[in-house]
Amino acid sequence: MSTGYRTILVDVEDRLAVVTFNRPDKRNAIDQTMVHELHDALDGLVVDGVVEACVFTGAGDKAFIGGADIAQLKERNAIDALKTINAALFGKIEALPFPTIAAVRGYCLGGGCELAICCDLRVAGEGAKFGQPEVALGIIPAAGGTQRLPRLVGLGRAKDLVLTGRTIDAREAERIGLVNRVVPDDEVLDAAKALARQILAQGSLAVRLAKLNLNNSARTGQDSGLLLEQVSQAVLFESEEKRRRMTEFLEKRARKP
Ligand code: COA
Predict the structure, then answer these.
(1) What are the two backbone dihedrals, phi and then psi, of residue 31, each rounded to the nearest 5 degrees?
(2) Per-residue pLDDT tens for 163-208?
(3) Å from CA of 222 to ligand 1 middle
(4) SS3 letters across 44-67
(5) What CA–CA distances, in Å, run from 97 to 87, 94, 103, 187, 212?
(6) Is the distance from the beta carbon of residue 134 to the nearest atom of ligand 1 less than 6 Å?
(7) Is 193 near ligand 1, meaning CB less than 6 Å away?
(8) Has 238 been annotated as catalytic?
(9) Hey, which of 35, 56, 80, 103 has its CA 20 to 30 A from 187?
(10) What is the chain's Cα-based Rg?
C-alpha cells in the first residue's frame, strides 16, 4: 500500500483505519484516480491484516462525496459502463473482511450515497444530505444503487429517492433506515470512531463471521444462508476467543457475593 495518494488519506491507529476522500474543492467527487487509489489502499489494509475496522469520511465540512466525477462520467460510453468501474470498487468495500462505517458530513449524493450504503453502518451529521440524483443527469445509480438501496430502506422508499432524484436530510435518512445515527456535525468523525471502537471490543472472529453472514443473507436463499450460519457458529464454538470470553464472564459472576 502506497502512502503518497493524491485523492485520499489513510490513517491507521490501533487497529482502526480512517480513509478520507480528499478532493474537498470538488466536493470529494470520485474520479478515476480516487478509484485506483482506493483499490490500492484497501487491498493493502486487507493484506497487512493489522486493521480490524475502517471509517470512511470526506475532507472538509461540505461533503462526504458529491458523486462520481461528472466531467469523467460525461465522456464514458457503454463499454466503459460495462467495465463497472465504481461498481467493482463498491463491491470491494461491501465485502471488506472487517466492519466499515461511513462518517457523513454534508452532501452524500449519487456514487457517494451508493458508497455509504456499502459500508456496514452510517453515522451522519445533522446537516448531512442524501440523495441519488442520477436521473437528473440522464443516468441511473448503476454502481449497485438500484439493488442495495431497496434492501436497506425498502422498495417503495428507494423508488421515491431514485425516480425523483430528490435530496433528503439526515433526520429523514435516519427515519427510513438509511442512516444508523445522527449526531451534531462536528461530532461525526468522533462518533463513528467510537462506534468502531465499540465493535473492536467484541470478539474479532465473531464480528467478521457475523458480517459475512449478514452480507450473505442478501445474496442467497434462506436455506443456504442458515447453513453458512451454522458452519460459522461451529467455527466460533471451537475458537480460543470464545472460550476466553465465556470463561471471563462466568468467573466474574462466580466472584460476585
Ligand atoms: N463531479 C464533478 N465535480 C463536482 C461534483 C461531481 N459529482 N460535485 C461537485 N463538483 C465540483 C463542482 O463542479 C465545483 O467545481 P468548480 O469549483 O471547479 O466549479 C465544486 O465541486 C464545488 O461545487 P459547487 O456546486 O459549487 O458546491 P456546492 O456546495 O454549492 O454544491 C453539490 C455541492 C454536491 C450539491 C453540487 O456540487 C452538486 O449538485 N453536485 C453534483 C451532484 C450529483 O449530481 N451527483 C451525482 C453524480 S452521478
Answers:
(1) -105, 180
(2) 999 999 999 999 999 999 999 999 999 999 999 999 999 999 999 9
(3) 42
(4) HHHHHCCCCEEEEEECCCCEEECC
(5) 18, 9, 19, 27, 8
(6) yes
(7) no
(8) no
(9) 35
(10) 19
Domains by residue range for the chain, with CATH: 8-200 (3.90.226.10), 204-255 (1.10.12)
109 lines ligand 1 (CB under 6 A): yes
Measured in Å, residue 67 CA sits from the centre of ligand 1 at: 8
The set of cell numbers assigned to 182 is: 445522527
Residue 131: its pLDDT value, please?
98
What is this structure's pTM?
A: 0.95
| Cβ of 71 below 6 Å from ligand 1 | yes
Residues 7 and 23: beta-carbon distance below 8 Å: yes
Measured over all CA atoms, what is the biggest interatomic distance in the chain, rounded to whole angstroms?
72
Ligand 1 centre distance from Cα of residue 25 (Å) = 9
Active site residue 134: yes
Q: How confident is the model at residue 1 (pLDDT cuts 50, 70, 90)?
A: low
- CA nearest neighbour of 170 among 179, 161, 157: 179
Strands, sheet with 167-169, edge to edge from the N-terminal-most edge strand: 63-65, 107-109, 129-131, 167-169
Residues 90-144: tens digit of each pLDDT:
999 999 999 999 999 999 999 999 999 999 999 999 999 999 999 999 999 999 9
